[in-house]
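User: Here's a chain of 484 residues. Predict its fold as tokens.
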Amino acid sequence: MNNSGKIDPYGFREYDARWVYEKDIDDDGIVQLGKGLGTQIINHTKKNNPRIIVGQDYRSYSEHIKEKLKEGLVSTGCKIEDIGLSLSPMVYFAQFNLNSDAIAMVTASHNENGWTGVKMGIKKGLTHAPEEMKELKDITLNQKFINGKGNVKKIDDFQNVYKNDLITKNPLNKKIKAVVACGNGTAGIFAPEILRSIGCEVIELDCELDWTFPKYNPNPEDLEMLHSISSAVKENNADIGFGFDGDGDRVGVIDDKGNEIFSDKIGLLIARNLSKDHKNSKFIVDVKSTGLYSNDKILKENKCETIYWKTGHSHIKRKVNTDNALAGFEKSGHFFFNKPLGYGYDDGINSAIQVCKLLDKNNKKMSEILGELPTTYQSPTMAPYCKDSEKYDVVENLVTEITNIKENKTKVDDQEIREILTVNGVRFSFDDGSWGLIRASSNKPSLVVVTESPTSEDRKKKIFDFIDNLLQQTGKVGDYDQKI
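Assistant: Prediction complete.
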């Protein structure tokens, strides 16, 4: 048995696998990860030679890591279909288009250089959830590998199959001037061409591939990236600005005035637009998202329902799938479109296309469409330190405490708690639509706190003070990364 591979067990996250290459995982470790994944796929599909789609992003070392991963997969009996340089959504699409048994995409998404990782999935359109990651970790670290004989086949020109699928389904009626920023990541060879082909006038920003990321990381939550898109929108008098992350599954949006639009508000605008043609639909949003979905008049008129669910792209994707929702929106910029708009997975370019369709349908500027939403005062996502070993217990105790406050009709800033949601921590809301959230972070030793009020800044702050007071009483919470 070969025990020489180095794999840091902490790299198996809740729904992603990520390591710093060579420090936390070496070549032999990646081969073993491939053996673990191959074994898991064979166990799930009950096939000796399942077909696996494999692709990689544009980092300097991604192709090498993909070769090592393939070596492990082949040794278990998997048949590899390598589609080469890809976006994560292109690999997800390939599973439908080529009808394969599973996928593995080598990417560290928007993480800094040095990081690597694998996004993987067995059931079409879904990526590994916590149970599957736990199972993969167990198979890999305990070397419970199956031996078999697989092979590798290269699939040429799949990029065009993916591009054409998005282009043919989504023609626009009017010219939309869009700034398209890719932070020198892999989306640079996809997004400008697709958006141009559906009818946009595209102004490219950092779309040439450069794995050193000379300006900033391709991350639509990165302020530097958002500021450069904003400047380009204003300089070029553009209608909209898009910023794509490193592997193309997320998008950030800037309006015609150069203002960033939070993804949960973009989601609501898209949901409103879709609800007119798709009455009685369901939408899934994560618990960090704005409370405006709950009482939105246009969604109500079109008999649409919104369900708040666990934060995390894997969780929202699954909920969209199991509830047969039309779409799902996550505050971090992952959007999921189900049939007939997509295949249920997150594709940043398809998300940008849905924003273009919104502009195509309305004879208004993006800032005007946004201005039709009620004003809300929303806090940033705040993360107070809390040990990994204690964070879930702390949240569980707070669920009990807040439930008691509701039952005893104790008032918070002169209002009683009307509703409590506990699918992911505790989110409590009031009659005026204000709410607060406390949950455990899924990937670092901290809690997550968000508050929002449609009434006033002051009310948003009062709800935060109420949460902060509860947290301080536990004695188990440290400093915040940022605070209102």
